[in-house]
Amino acid sequence: MAAAELQITKQTRIGMELQFHWEEVKAFERQPDGSLFSWCERFYCYQHLIRGIKNKRQTAITLKYDGKEFKWEVGECLLQKLETEGIVKRVFPLHDETKRKKLLYSWALHWWDFTNQPIDEIYSYFGTKIAVYFAFLGMYTRWLLFPAAFGLTLQIINFGYVLEFRSLRLLVLPIFFVSIILWAIMFSQFWKRKNSALLARWQISYSMEADVGYKLLGMDRSSVQSAEKPVRKAHIKIEKEVFQRNEWFGRLLRFRNDALVILSIICLQLPFELAYAHTYEVMESDIIKFGLTAIYLFAIQYLTQVGGKISVKLIKHEDNENKEKRADSLVYKVFGLYFMQSYIGVFYHALLHRSFLTLRQVLILRLLVSEVLQNLWENSLPYLKYSYKKYRIRSKKRQEKKSSSGKIQFSSRVEKEYLKPSYSASIGEEIEDGLFDDLLELALQFGMIMMFASAFPLAFAFAILNNITEIRTDALKLLTMFKRPQPRAAATIGAWLNIFQFLTVMSICTNCALLAWLYDEEGRWKIEPGLAAILVMEHILLMIKFGFSRFVPEEPAWVRANRMKNATQAQDVCSKRILRSISAEKESREEKEHVVEKEFGMKKEE
């Protein structure tokens, strides 16, 4: 009944997505686990039910709690009143202990499967967005096997340093570069195919929210359906103007905000990053370098946090269609800050010093130290927060009982889970959840190993080891250290896929530049056959990048066939009903005409 009140749309057995009606429950498809509703749908139904408890009496009701009295006004939400009075501290979904323990042993602690994961069970328990993230992480890690093996082979041979044949290095590095670019292009396209296959299995479509059009017009669906014909005609008349105005006004707002972020990055963050990179290079003392790096890390974290907060404020003034669109806008803005922070120092070493050895040292430092420290930080911080909260609560209870000995137990599992930290983003937690930081880490890693692949082929081996660990630690973190996350209905990884594709294009340019420097060590910059071949190769790879999607469709043939079959079935059903209604209308009109003629004949006889 709550789903019907919320006007939730669900996929029917003939493939059409229709508004849910309880009386026609058998017409709707069920989830892979056999349940009627997904976890996301159930969550919003629960929210609707508990927040739908209102005072429907004619007068206010006096409520008592802990010796205090307060008025529950007419039409006021009970839960909102309890939250205002401080009686209810927080509303959050609890972990299902049976399913949680099953996932813990079959997923988080099952290290021997490496990248294999129970994606359908993850979807049923956490929802679409988290399941899609882990499916992406698993596929990305499996696909890393090829470049990791290739890079490890090159590192073992150690060409160019052990061997004296410089021509061998000039031949093998371009082959490796072309291979990993083709690998990245194919991965991006085949991930889209896998994503569409997962959504087809979970009965989820990319379709736009049905209420978006009504929201743009300042109406809801029920008001349009119940409106009289003259009112509908009036709204249809202004519909085009409203849509055009909202479209261009929203685009201008987003363009203004994006321009502000880009200008702030160029004018503020870029000089700061270049100053640090140059100062670090000219310093001779290791102690001074260490102190400078510590100051830099502290300052850059503060600047990134400030930039993220400004981005969130800018997004609130944008005319985005839904929460996922707002989240995508935040991703684009904040990634620009992190892109400059993560890569400008590496670009500095690559551009000015043109030393592969120095560049490799910088990449090893960034990949090993930053990723190890990042994993330790993101996995230990929630545990430390949880332990500290438990310590404070137990100390408070000991003081209340005036006892310094004995074990203090929590009153319920709810109280224990309440102390766990939420799975929230480090920036813009009201828009994004913890997946923002996890996907940001993956994107920065992808950019690091791709854009400088020619200088450090072994980076792919480090990445695959990190990702295998990341799968299990992220699963353990979600199941044991955090509250159960609120589900999100996003069907893809959103803006992050566009960022991965952008980094692929960047890697074509940066690796061609690295190969050009390797070929032209003397700095003559003459268009010789080798250098010309690198420039031609760059243009060919860019053409392949943008043309590969034409050859490999974004959805498998069986998904497309099922969609077409469902569309045909839906068309047949609709056609039959329309024809039946037309025939019934015609018969009714003929009967009325026959009755009128009969009455007219009787009057004529009289």
Present the secondary structure layout.
Blueprint: H1 2-5, E1 9-11, E2 17-19, H2 39-51, E3 61-65, E4 68-72, H3 78-84, H4 97-108, H5 119-126, H6 128-143, H7 145-157, H8 166-201, H9 212-216, H10 221-226, H11 229-282, H12 286-316, H13 323-353, H14 356-401, H15 413-418, H16 435-451, H17 459-481, H18 495-519, H19 529-551, H20 557-605
Antiparallel strand pairs: 1-2, 3-4
What would you say about this model in short?
The chain has 20 helices and 4 strands.
Q: How many β strands by DSSP?
A: 4
Radius of gyration based on Cα positions = 31 Å
Characterize the largest beta sheet: strand count, sense, and whether it forms a barrel: 2 strands, antiparallel
Q: What structural class do helix, strand and pairing data support?
A: mainly alpha
Mean pLDDT: 77
End-to-end C-alpha gap: 59 Å
Q: Which bin fits the share of residues in helices?
A: over 70%
* Poorly predicted spans: 160-165, 207-232
| Number of helices in the DSSP assignment | 20
Q: Could you explain how this protein is built, in words?
A:
With 606 residues, this protein is mostly helical. It contains 20 helices and 4 strands. The strands form 2 sheets. The chain has a two-stranded antiparallel sheet with strand order 1-2. A hairpin with a 5-residue loop joins strand 1 (9-11) and strand 2 (17-19). Helix 5 packs antiparallel against helix 6 (128-143) and helix 6 (128-143) packs antiparallel against helix 17 (459-481). The longest helix has 54 residues, at 229-282. The protein starts with a helix and ends with a helix. The model is unreliable at 160-165 and 207-232 (pLDDT under 50).
